[in-house]
Amino acid sequence: MSVIVRWAPSPTGRIHLGNARPALLNWFFARRHAGKYVLRMDDTDLARSTRAFADGIEEDLHWLGVTPDLLVRQSERTALYDAARDSLIADGRLYPCYETEDELDRKRARARLLGKPPIYDRAALSLTEDDKARLEAKGRRPHWRFRLDGRPVQFVDVIKGAQTVNTASMSDPVLIRADGSYLYTLPSVVDDIDLGITHVIRGEDHVSNTGTQIEIFEALGGAVPAFGHHNLLTDAAGQGFSKRLGSQSIADFRAEGYEPLAIAIVATLTGTSLSVEPYDSLDAIAERLDFSMISHGSARFDPAELNALNARLLHAMPYADAAPRLSAMGLEGEAMWMLLRENLTRFDDIAEWAKLVTGPVEPVVSPEDEDFLKLAKALLPPEPWDQDTWGQWTDALKGATGRKGKALFLPLRLALTGRHDGPELKSLLVLLGRKACLDRLP
């Protein structure tokens, strides 16, 4: 069986790390099994969904390295949902209900007072055609519920193992609002059937929905896909990521200069038995990550872990990967990149570090070091220079002044770079050349 997965975001805002987790886990599963990846825009909420948000989701996926094989939009597939609606009505599985939200609230409150579960009592099934006509004459418009079988629905979750959802303890779900618009559930099932989805991989907050959806698959005569429910990613405080709460978006991370691979690794390997560490590519992660490695416990995002990982990726980045980005910044040179990359936490930091080589640099000279630095200038070796030049120079200075350790090296670093920290001086010296060093020494 060929694997076909889908990721189905609602374009009602920019996606965040919590959204990126299932987007990438589906991608890894498709890559691991040479399968197909469908991006489905669940844009039936016409009041909140926008094309700008949809375009933003595509942009974020592309930045992360995910290339869908197919893009579909639910707003363009209404005829399929209408046909499924009519089929379920004809079979008696979808029935009209006329209660207002206030009436339903009162029913739920009454049930709680009686110690009963606050599930829908199916009163609408007792309405006659005359009853319905009388209600509609008063301006009532029905919402439509799916009549559940009310049974234990069993399935083997590809992440969590054997699961049972008893739909007898659930209200018949509303599939169509009173205004005729569809809620998430029916279009989702219809699309999964139509697109031949074999695996639905999503957050564990959807486990209870799965019983309902399996019953709808069966009622429509569709093949039931395998389901996998992963643990949810939370923020550093243990709260779930949410568009509504304004969680930091993938676009925000991109604007702040994070590497897409760092975001992908943190979003997916957090809460698994694999370490959050550098990988060469998404495919390298897909080869390693098996769903058996996903923890059944929480997955908490650690910003410090992301920062450390981002730096490690940059420190190991080959010049071939960095070169186009350097060129766009007006910078060139493999030797410069190999020397300075160890100091980076974000790629754009290279612009500031490159000044150590290209200038301008404001030397820092303490009054007590002025004579020492004048002697250093006089003892600066002639060119050509290589990796041994730094040792030759400092040995000569040590012999002439008796200085060693920090007293020897720090004044030279401050004069040549204007900084207390930075790259290895023996390599920097070669890149600078004798003239630049003479210009920076007092």
TrEMBL record:
Keyword annotations: Aminoacyl-tRNA synthetase, ATP-binding, Cytoplasm, Ligase, Nucleotide-binding, Protein biosynthesis
GO terms of biological process kind: glutamyl-tRNA aminoacylation
Gene Ontology cellular-component annotations: cytoplasm
One family name in Pfam for this protein: tRNA-synt_1c
Domain Glutamyl/glutaminyl-tRNA synthetase class Ib catalytic intervals: 3-274
EC number: 6.1.1.17
Molecular function GO labels: ATP binding; glutamate-tRNA ligase activity; tRNA binding
Span(s) of short sequence motif 'KMSKS' region: 240-244
Enzyme class (EC, first level): ligase
Catalytic activity, reaction form: tRNA(Glu) + L-glutamate + ATP = L-glutamyl-tRNA(Glu) + AMP + diphosphate
UniProt-annotated binding residues for ATP: K243
Motif 'HIGH' region per record, residues: 9-19
Cell location: Cytoplasm
Stretches assigned to the Aminoacyl-tRNA synthetase class I anticodon-binding domain: 335-441
Domain of life, source organism: Bacteria
PANTHER family per the UniProt record, alphabetical: GLUTAMATE--TRNA LIGASE, GLUTAMATE--TRNA LIGASE, MITOCHONDRIAL-RELATED
Database matches in HAMAP family: Glu_tRNA_synth_type1
Complex and partners: Monomer.
Function: Catalyzes the attachment of glutamate to tRNA(Glu) in a two-step reaction: glutamate is first activated by ATP to form Glu-AMP and then transferred to the acceptor end of tRNA(Glu).
Protein name per UniProt: Glutamate--tRNA ligase
Organism (species): Devosia chinhatensis
This protein's encoding gene: gltX
